[in-house]
Write a structure and sequence with these properties.
Number of strands of chain A: 11
Oligomer: heterodimer
Number of helices of chain A: 0
Shape of chain A: globular
Number of strands of chain B: 11
Radius of gyration of chain A: 13 Å
Mean pLDDT of chain A: 93
Strand content of chain A: over 45%
Largest interface: A-B, 20 and 18 residues
Shape of chain B: globular
Mean pLDDT of chain B: 94
Number of helices of chain B: 0
Largest sheet of chain A: 6 strands, mixed
Structural class of chain A: mainly beta
Low-confidence stretches of chain B: none
Distance between the termini of chain A: 40 Å
């Protein structure tokens, strides 16, 4: 079946850039999403990219999509303590089914 | 708008007890979902609904039932709770626009089954 994989943990120094990676197996992806989950809260949509795009930038966030390698990344520039959270990658396929990855916990070092 | 709300926020059950988790949304969304989140497992879809009066099974439906009698509410029932159902339960609602789908999540219900 379709799968979305992420590393479980990432540690970054405050002020540096964070890059969170995701791979997926679905060849019929239409949209790919990044959600953020802060402690004790539900998920919130951060950004998304349409499958025919290769890059999307939104303030400190840059999403890169390599469709050939089925690889998605989220870059957070100038990482702040408020960016500490779990980040979920999600894939929407042609049947509009959405599959979430297991989430990457981003830890910010002072 | 309150968005997506979940009741209760926290509950402790004994094995074999039953309970109902309530999800309510005030955004007039057609789609609603119930997920469970467990350490190292990410989000797993339990049941979902594409409209009032309809429900469908997700990835891990066993031991749960759902109902969507009103568009704004999606109920998740546990008929006979088991320790394996200890988890954090999230409800989400969504709309589809231009092909994409944005899911709005509630704050979660933490359930402990002893």
């Amino acid at each position: 079946g379709e799968d979305v994989e992420q590393s479980l943990f990432l540690s970054v120094r405050e002020g540096d850039s964070s890059v969170i990676n995701c791979t997926y197996t679905d060849s019929s992806s239409t949209y790919l999403y990044w959600y953020k989950q802060e402690p004790g809260a539900g998920l919130q949509l951060l950004t998304y990219i349409f499958s025919n795009m290769d890059m999307k930038q939104d303030q400190r966030l840059t999403v890169l999509l390599n469709k050939k390698d089925k690889h998605l990344s989220l870059r957070i520039a100038d990482t702040q303590t408020g960016d500490s959270a779990i980040y979920f990658c999600a894939d929407q396929n042609r049947d509009d089914k959405i599959i979430f990855g297991k989430g990457t916990r981003l830890h910010i070092l002072p | 708008n309150a968005g997506v709300t979940q009741t209760p926020k926290f509950r402790v059950l004994k094995t074999g007890q039953s309970m109902t988790l309530l999800c309510a949304q005030d955004m007039n969304h057609e789609y609603m979902y119930w997920y469970r989140q467990d350490p190292g497992m990410g989000l797993r879809l339990i049941h979902y609904s594409v409209g009032e009066g309809t429900t469908a099974k997700g990835e891990v439906p066993d031991g749960y039932n759902v109902s969507r009698l009103k568009k704004q509410n999606f109920l998740l029932g546990l008929e006979s709770a088991a320790p394996s159902q200890t988890s954090v339960y999230f409800c989400a609602s969504s709309f589809r626009q231009g092909g994409g789908e944005t899911q709005y999540f509630g704050p979660g219900t933490r359930l402990l089954v002893l």
